[in-house]
Amino acid sequence: MGLEGQKITVAGAGIGGLTAAVALSQRGAKVTVLEQAEVITEVGAGIQVSPNGFAVLKALGLGEAFRAIAVQGEAVELRDYRVGDLVARLDLGLLPEDQPYFFVHRADLIDLLAQEARAAGVRIRLLQKVESVTLGERPVLQMGNGAEVKTKLLIGAEGLHSKLRTALNGVQAPFFTRQTAWRATIPNVIGHPNVSRVHMGPRQHMVSYPLRGGEIINIVAVQERTGWAEEGWMHEDDPENLRKAFKGYGGEAKRMLDAVERVGYWGLFRHPVAPVWHKGRAAILGDAAHPTLPFMAQGAVMAMEDAWVLADALDGADDIEAGLAAYQARREGRVKKVIEAANGNAWKYHLSFPPVRLGAHLGLRALSTLAPKRLMQQFDWIYRHDVTKS
Predict the structure, then answer these.
(1) Phi and psi, residue 129, nearest 5°
(2) By C-alpha distance, which of 369, 360, 295, 289 is closest to 327?
(3) How distant, in Å, are the alpha carbons of 39, 40, 103 from that of 106?
(4) Beta carbons of 109 and 69 less than 8 angstroms apart
(5) Cβ atoms within 10 Å of 105's Cβ, excluding its own
(6) Edge-first strand listing for the sheet containing 102-105
(7) Using an 8 Å Cβ cutoff, are 217 and 211 in contact?
(8) 7-44+108-172+272-344 CATH fold
(9) In the chain, where are the structural domains located?
(10) pLDDT tens digits along 201-258
(11) How many CB atoms lie within 10 A of CB 298?
């Protein structure tokens, strides 16, 4: 079929939508991105881009530009919450030189992708809120301003509340995981090294890593609780509530918590992977297709992988429907495996029964000291997977 001259509409200018727009336009498609916000931005702060995500950026010609805005990670450190004693260290330097691991401000990556999209001829239209989608021979979007947009091919990349996901699958209720999370950025008050630190406490943990050349620190703190918060990224909380929830944390963790002045708060919900990713001339990607919990740091990276595979599958197919079917077939098994890993990861950080906690920490410490490569190799199936070569 080829994509030369194909007119494609992408709903959503987040990481997945913009990556798709770049990948499609580089193959000759005429892409329009519809974004409901008044500016291209992204709520949130830091994300981690593992080697499998960097492979996509390199293939799009953005490798060096991305390096300039990101912090290359040296390790992941697991630490005890009380005074910050090191439990285990996963040395990211053991990854191959061409498979680096990065921390980046989400807004900086969005800016880079938007610049590349515009340079490739993508038209980005702001203040375009999609109210509903009607599927048919050509998808029709009903917009918040009353207009209708007809398109030859629609890609839904609008995240959790995708209207196209609903059109394809109906309403699927998520369920609360009994975990809530806070997110904040602070000045680098502790000289945070270029590592991701996980301070592990009973039924809670806090992740921190540097952004923007080490000038600021990204913090995500997760706690198990029976009460729940409304899902989303836009809810602000009183920093004192965060400090109260993590009052047992000492050392550098406490210094970081004390520096928080503004904090977002949300409940963590588990969503089913959408059974239907495509129909006719419409398809979904990223969180619209397969939302994931943040415990493997793969949400944004899975969307980037989706975007590359979608463009590649369409470019090599005889027709649009066959291309979309190939896209889901190539992606569904992998994202389900990643999501299952994320679902099962939180408990490892939240051990509360003292003998179990002590035994687990001793085992991790021994493994990271005696067999560091083995500790890292458990992630090979994620990090060394390169969709641009498969």
Answers:
(1) -85, 125
(2) 289
(3) 14, 12, 9
(4) yes
(5) 21
(6) 46-49, 102-105, 71-72
(7) yes
(8) FAD/NAD(P)-binding domain (3.50.50)
(9) 7-44+108-172+272-344
(10) 988 999 999 999 999 999 999 998 877 656 565 588 999 999 999 999 999 999 999 9
(11) 26
